């Protein structure tokens, strides 16, 4: 039992470390070959949005909206990959969790 408790404490330390790394990581999603970029961290916060002047057309707001949605989707995919990279190995560390 003491060994299992030590494993749990070690896993908790690893999870906390991985969470800190994700909070400090910068992840960028983009759409339209970089015309719209959205930057955030690994915990879900969006920290910046960049929109190229080329796509700002008052007569075509729908395209800009689509590009923003695409950039947010790309950001979410990249963030999910980061979470899987950092947290995935930790789920397999204890019996019954992997």
UniProtKB/TrEMBL annotation:
Sorted alphabetically, the Gene Ontology cellular component annotations on this record are:
bacterial nucleoid; cytosol
One MF term from GO for this chain?
DNA binding
What InterPro entries does the annotation carry? YbaB-like_sf, YbaB/EbfC
Where does this protein reside within or beyond the cell?
Answer: Cytoplasm, Nucleoid
Do the record's keywords include DNA-binding? yes
Coiled-coil region list: 1-28
Report if keyword DNA-binding is assigned.
Answer: yes
Q: Which UniProt keywords apply?
A: Coiled coil, Cytoplasm, DNA-binding
Family label: Belongs to the YbaB/EbfC family.
UniProt xrefs under HAMAP family: DNA_YbaB_EbfC
User: Matching NCBIfam families, A to Z?
Assistant: DNA_YbaB_EbfC (TIGR00103)
| Its biological purpose | Binds to DNA and alters its conformation. May be involved in regulation of gene expression, nucleoid organization and DNA protection.
Subunit comment for this entry?
Homodimer.
Name recorded for this polypeptide: Nucleoid-associated protein ACH46_01795
The scientific name of the source species is: Gordonia phthalatica
**Which lineage is the organism of this entry classified under, starting from the top rank?**
Bacteria, Bacillati, Actinomycetota, Actinomycetes, Mycobacteriales
